Fold these 2 entries.
Entry 1:
Amino acid sequence: MGEPPWWTSAVVYQVYPRSFMDSDGDGVGDLGGIRQRLDHLTDLGVDVVWLSPVYASPQADNGYDISDYQAIDPVFGTLEEFDALLAELHDRGIKLVMDLVVNHTSDQHPWFVESRSSTTDPKRDWYWWRPPRAGMTAGEPGAEPTNWHSFFSGPTWELDEPSGEYFLHLFAREQPDLNWENPEVRQAVHAMMRWWLDRGVDGFRMDVINMISKDVGLPDGPPLPGSPYGDGSASYLCGPRIHEYLQEMHREVFAGRPDRLLTVGEMPGVTVEQARLFTDPARAEVDMVFQFEHVGLDFDGDKWHSRPLRLRDLKASFGRWQAGLADVGWNSLYWDNHDQPRAVSRFGDDRPAHRRDSATCLATLLHLHRGTPYVYQGEELGMANAPFATLADLRDVESLNHHAQAVAAGADPDSVLAAIRPVSRDNARTPVQWDATEHAGFTTGTPWIAVNPDHVEWNAAAQRDDPRSVLAHHRALIALRHASWTVQLGDFTMLLPDHDDVYAFTRALDGETLLVVCNVSGTPYRLDELLPQAVGAELVLGNLADPDPVALAGWDARVLRLR
Ligand code: TEU
């Protein structure tokens, strides 16, 4: 084996620009704000910033609806500011990976405006246009070309009245899907990607990239229980030409460029077996996948029906991914991103007595796996879910559409809100808590979404010089990964697969074995009974002040070196 790729030792930090730092007082985070907070990233020690979309956008889905791929949205700044940010990150040795959202555009993108203008427009075929279902009239309920349910509620088809045809949108109706079957679409995307690489960016995180190839037959999907719609995912998750498209993209965009580039495929629904194919270096598709299995374990049916995670389910899932990509391929490791509720509230315990310990325990568990860890802004501070009191506190198109649709179908509005509260994507999108002042130091204006009131206690300023803070623990985990080949590349072995509360595993390389023990609960356990080999082992890193040699306290997490 040659030198392992640089990203096997790297940690990625995700910036969701709208909520990171506002430099101009309009209440929305921006590029200038990121530039003001670069010391935070250097202090943490991260290697890569993944920047969520800053392109021109009507912001129907906070920038995941792009109207110009080669312009910066004025709400975030200018191309000059972008170039300055890129140079400043590079000066600090940090790479910048852009979000690439090319499964769909905004409905305001000139490509779609043209495509919509007439059935004979040269760009008509750049999107998925279809007549109503045979024998039905456009606009009639059920006349949509397929029965598919959109990720953001309702059908995946929107009627365009003037032409009497429908266009496909897997997400919001403001996000029409591009037709990748058309080679002109692929060439336009490749050219745009080359333009950003020529500008100096270090790669792309590719939004829902496993949805770009669809079964052109567009068959109905199996009916969804209690819904007028069906599940079309078999027709668009890892569709027939997905590997061909990614290999072509690699050839057209990345071949011959420096090794410093990174490609991350965000792939909802991807299996371990498929991920091996996507990330096998010999196939030249993407460097790593960003998969969703573990964040799909704590609900029944859909995300609005959440229930507590069973730790053995998590072990089974993570264990399969570790084993499946042990010899070929690479995975991303994450709890949080801008689409997920906050991990400390979801999988930990955000009550005051356990918040710090559970946040650091979860981080330890994650960062010691094999794969590239992702830290989502605020996670390194132990930021928690927000106390959304009313519907007016929410902003996200997914949450708002779901509420409207459920209430229209007869559900009680308060019960719907109660189901949304713990899982809304807005939990991840409240502003980063920089200090204890008004609006947490995020803005001098009125924030676009309210700051979590707990910022008076939970903020970066309070944690920066505290060696026991969640922030300090993340710093230590990142430093450990940088220093340890065993953490980067060691073999993974799951221990205690059926234990309900304790998550334990080893990582081994070249004669060194690290034992990781995490008590994912507030219940104490006897370490000497569970894992006798842990007793007397050298403590490499722990999250509690004075860990007991034989007893595991609640949320106790340790990295031990076995002799
Ligand atoms: O998300 C892809 C996706 O399928 C999910 O993360 C989805 O948003 C979530 O499960 C709904 O609960 C990506 C982006 O990360 C997300 O912010 C965008 O809204 C979406 O694609 C469309 O671009």
Note: The chain has a mean pLDDT of 97.
Entry 2:
Amino acid sequence: TDFDTFIEGLPKAELHLHIEGSLEPELMFELARRNAVAIPFASVEEVRAAYAFSNLQDFLDIYYAGADVLRTRADFHDLAMAYFTRAARDGVVHAELMFDPQTHTDRGMPFAEVIEGLLSGMRAAEAQFGITSSLILSFLRHLSEEAAFATLEMAEPWLDRIAAVGLDSSEVGHPPSKFARVFAAAREKGLRITAHAGEEGPPEYVQEALDLLKVERLDHGNRALEDEALVARLLSEGMTLTVCPLSNLKLCVVEDLADHPLDRMLALGLRATVNSDDPAYFGGYVADNYRAIAKARGLSREDLVTLARNSFTGSFLPRETVARHV
Ligand code: ADE
Ligand code: ZN
């Protein structure tokens, strides 16, 4: 329809995308074959059938298992290019890719292979599709502070090619306070700051992300809405929220998309954006997320334009580049 064409044609930035979460079952099989890695699935259909989650941890278990087929620099290049090829069709002109180095270095992959493969895919995507991109190094919060420090140290030779640090994985029981010192060290190195907070975790975790990590944007942030004073603070700070509707549905953060708070966020004046999180696992890329939430909550074209504009103002692009996009 016209509405779908409008969504796809809207130039947008994607701010919340785990590149490992864009590994489609087809590529998983191809890499398993190429690298002679055994996977516990007989077919692409069987893989897709296993993607039924009742919470974040359910998903993470299968997501980390899937990442095991990624073994070489070329694999990371191909993974990134597959994402950009798909994102180009959705009107993505800029993407800030989160990657989880610990998922790979803990399996014995050199950090250099992971990041050089991604950077190579990012260069190819800019040449082929004109999509600009940057990297967000995300620490796994279920692992220790010490492990996060070791990861930051590994990244040292590439700091000029990493825009920001982030925090992801199992939220409940791993509050932002656990990583306050690592994030302070990252800030001192000139890295920008984001963190997942308020996806499953309570509003207090969002507060900690602001106070202790000094986040410049908030990944998810849904549960911040439970605390009126916190909402007022997010408003006054002009905080960007990277919201992921289909992820929220698949991970049971919302029971139904009809209950999703995205339009409430917009009505409150919060700078919400729409993103795909882990598109291969949650059944849709960024335009699918725009479409699904627009339909479920009756968003107007004006709302969609606001969401797309927020994706640029909330990006880590230089101000003058943002100005060219909004
Ligand atoms: N890692 C990949 N996707 C994630 C999500 N939605 N929340 C936390 N960690 C993640
Ligand atoms: Zn995420």
Note: The CA atoms of residues 93 and 130 lie 7 Å apart.
